[in-house]
Amino acid sequence: MADKGPLWDQLVAQHGLQPYGLDEIVNWAYLDMALGNDMDQVSSLTKIVSTGWTDLWNTEATITRQLQKLRDNRIIP
After folding, report:
1. Is residue 77 part of a domain?
2. Tens digits of residue pLDDT in 56-74
3. Torsion angle of the four alpha carbons 6, 8, 9, 10, in this order, in degrees rounded to the nearest 10
4. Distance separating alpha carbons of residues 20 and 6, to the nearest angstrom
5. Does some domain include residue 23?
6. Using CA atoms, how far apart are residues 67 and 60, in angstroms rounded to an integer?
7. Using an 8 Å Cβ cutoff, are 22 and 6 in contact?
8. Which of 9, 33, 57, 68: CA 20 to 30 A from 25?
9. Secondary structure class of 46 (helix, strand, coil)
10. Whole-angstrom Cα distance, residue 66 to residue 70?
11. Which domain holds residue 48?
């Protein structure tokens, strides 16, 4: 994605977004680790719930809420 900075700058101008550079809003190292590793990504909350943990968030709702905040703050279109 290193060569996508100019494309991002164009999107920023077209949509009137905050003037952040692509490298300022994306952590590519984290994304590479999260999506490009050989570790099993399946997890279960059964054990933690069985110990009494009850504060669980809906993943889809959380991601949707965070994306909406980025839109509201004019960081993404």
Report:
1. no
2. 889 899 999 999 999 999 9
3. 90
4. 12
5. yes
6. 11
7. no
8. 57
9. helix
10. 6
11. 2-72
Question: CA-based diameter of the chain, in Å?
Answer: 51
12, amino acid identity? V
Q: What are the tens digits of pLDDT across the range 8-34?
A: 999 999 999 999 999 999 998 988 888
- Does a structural domain hold residue 8? yes
Distance of CA 50 to the CA centre of its chain: 29
In a domain, residue 58? The reply is: yes
Domain count for the chain: 1
C-alpha dist (Å) from residue 43 to 13, 14, 24, 26, 48: 40, 40, 30, 25, 11
CA dist., res. 6 & res. 12, Å (int): 10
pLDDT at 40 over 80: no
